[in-house]
Amino acid sequence: DAKTTQPPSMDCAEGRAANLPCNHSTISGNEYVYWYRQIHSQGPQYIIHGLKNNETNEMASLIITEDRKSSTLILPHATLRDTAVYYCIVREIQGAQKLVFGQGTRLTINP
Amino acid sequence: EPEVTQTPSHQVTQMGQEVILRCVPISNHLYFYWYRQILGQKVEFLVSFYNNEISEKSEIFDDQFSVERPDGSNFTLKIRSTKLEDSAMYFCASSPRQFRTYEQYFGPGTRLTVT
Questions:
Q1: Quick one: A80 exposed, middle or buried, by C-beta within 10 A (0-12, 13-18, 19+)?
Q2: Chain A: residue nearest B88 by CA?
């Protein structure tokens, strides 16, 4: 079973920042937080991951609380193409560890 | 930018027939995976493959399923005798062996329809 809890759906206006929360209160010390998204029926797309420090890349920022029990994915200027299901996944970073997907958050960007 | 490719994009087969789904992972990646997604449901892990052997498999991956890396580029999933409940999107993924990363890159999927 997925070790994370996410709201089932969220809306955001185009051009605004989308903040997607995730709870992972049982995360262990050697588990990272990964975010993926799935646009319609396409293959999941890697967004970002982190351990305890905040991370930023060209797609998004990841804010992890100090106790690591929750995190927030931030899409700074959401566009219509960001409409997708976003998955927060905790995973050990060794080798061939599988990804366990939950239901994710269905993010809708409105014009 | 390199990407995972999958063929065919859509496969229709009759119940009881064998199907082979093909994937070409990103060329320097070492870990390979198959996932599936039944319409309207979660993405589910099937199997992971490393160093020419299965690393882990789920309960879904029973004796009807097999994987193979027949050459240096292809990675295949075979379903020996398809059932109606095998109808799903099948995604192949690969990941590099890089310290502190191991992010998985997914292909576009093969839609399998069993009639």
A1: exposed
A2: A41
**pLDDT tens-digit readout, A25-77:** 999 888 899 999 999 889 999 999 999 989 999 999 999 999 999 999 999 99
Q: Which of A34, A41, A96 sits opposite B55 (nearest CB)?
A: A96
Question: Residue B87's CB: how many other CB atoms inside 10 A?
Answer: 18
SS3 A60: coil
With CB atoms and an 8 Å threshold, state whether A46 touches B42: no
Residue B93: how many other CB atoms lie within 10 Å: 27
Rounded to the nearest angstrom, the minimum Cα separation between A100 and chain B is 7
Cα(B47)–Cα(B63) distance, integer angstroms: 12
Give the β-pairing of B19-24 and B5-7: antiparallel
Tokens of B40: 């309207």
A53 touches chain B (CB under 8 A): no
Instruction: Summarize pLDDT for A71-106 with one digit per residue, the tens.
Output: 999 999 999 999 999 999 998 876 568 899 999 999
The nearest CA of chain B is from the CA of A49 a distance in Å of 8
The answer, yes or no, to whether the previous bond of B25 is cis (omega within 30 of 0) is no
Q: B115 exposed, middle or buried (CB, 10 Å; 0-12, 13-18, 19+)?
A: exposed
Contact between A10 and A83 under an 8 Å Cβ cutoff? The reply is no
